[in-house]
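Appendix B. Chain record.
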Amino acid sequence: MSGSPDGEAVLELGVIRAGDAGRVGPKMARLGQLASAGWRVPDGYAVTASALEGWLPASAQAELHRLFSTAAAGGTDYGGHQRLAALSEQARQIIEGQPLPSPVADAVAAAQARLEQRTGRGGALRVAVRSSAVGEDGRAASFAGQYETYLGVRGLDEVLRHIAKCWASGYSAHALEYRRRFGGSSPLRANDLAVGVLELVDARSAGVAFTLDPVTGDRGRLVVEANWGLGESVVSGQVTPDYWTVERGSGRILERRVGAKLVWSVLAGAGAGNADAELGGTAAEGRSGTVLAPLPAELAQVPCLSDDEVRYICRQAAAIEAAEGTPQDVEWAIARDLEVPDGVFFLQHRPETTWSAAVPESGAAPAPAPSFDPVQYALRNVFKVPGT
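Structure tokens predicted for this chain:
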């Protein structure tokens, strides 16, 4: 296993800055920069890309090589989507069956213990284990959305297991196909993936803010989409979220719509208020440690944010844009046990790529097409969800 240039396998979020993108990926580098500039972000740490490069033992690497060499004999498309999906499953089983090297596991154990102490939650702490690829989330959105994030992970053994799962998600069928079609790289590429481990905000409401109108590209307007609970229900397209358009200069709310919010994403068995009574045996299992549950009837037709909360989120998103110098898509969450503004956490941000090359002046943009679906837009162009 190769180590990071300075021998560190783990970097605490508090020391990460934008210049560390080559070590921890843009996602974690931007988050560390936000924290250093005074924005409230979840506490955590990152396992560096160099610490994870080459971590698989020689036997596992040889098994992967045989797997893909045999498949490639049938052509560069590996025999079509069905065959690619089968290859992906085999590759991920090989990878996820390997323990992390002792030096990396020991560094993660120490960082996890420090995080549990800092948050005061001890072993009850739930975290998000997030991929942060060196090549993703750039201005061209290269490889954005091709790797996995796991929510609600608890305990050191599960954290270590999900770090390996994040790395293995580089071998998902859609990631393999994306690299084949656009990256031109071998499926057995040199790894460029770091992994972030962040305290999971038990969200009362969460969503995304666009610092320009994603329909028209109008920078005079900001757009907020949100739902009750964790933001996973919004970015995965499971709901039609609540929607606001805000005038940049005045903060005036130009449009508001209450979405068809029939479900929400909540932590499984973690005191999610009314969700606990709603889960029963009908809730569909979500990603690790979360469930997608029916939204309580009293919340379904109620906006999940007040107008003042919408304005505050827009002001903060605009400030992030000003610091970055380009329009941004900003993910945020409001903790259920804290009041705004103290409870507003910023989870990540990335450059907007669809309109940034040629952004129209405010008021000069064409009217939106009648068939435009803002959720589908976000899935395709922001979160890069395959198949949308």
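Further analysis of this model is presented in Appendix C.
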